[in-house]
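Q: I have 76 residues here and want to know how they pack in 3D. Can you give me a structure?
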Amino acid sequence: MTSPCLTADKVSEVFRKLHLEENYNFLQEDLQKLADAFVMAAEPAITAAERDKCVTFVRSLNTQVAQSLKGFKGEV
């Protein structure tokens, strides 16, 4: 897995735009920890969905390449 890519400023901006049921006064560091944890938890599902879309697209061009891409797990 890769490291989280949300900056502290982006995390704060997203938090301020949320309409939560309660008022929370999180420290900047705690917001960053929460954001990083959510990103890391969601990353496998996002990666899998992106990979499936790539395979589907490639399959429309070349089925053999799509089959190879689907089975490829490492990095080049």
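Q: Anything worth noting?
A: The two ends are 16 Å apart (CA to CA). The CA atoms of residues 7 and 32 lie 8 Å apart.
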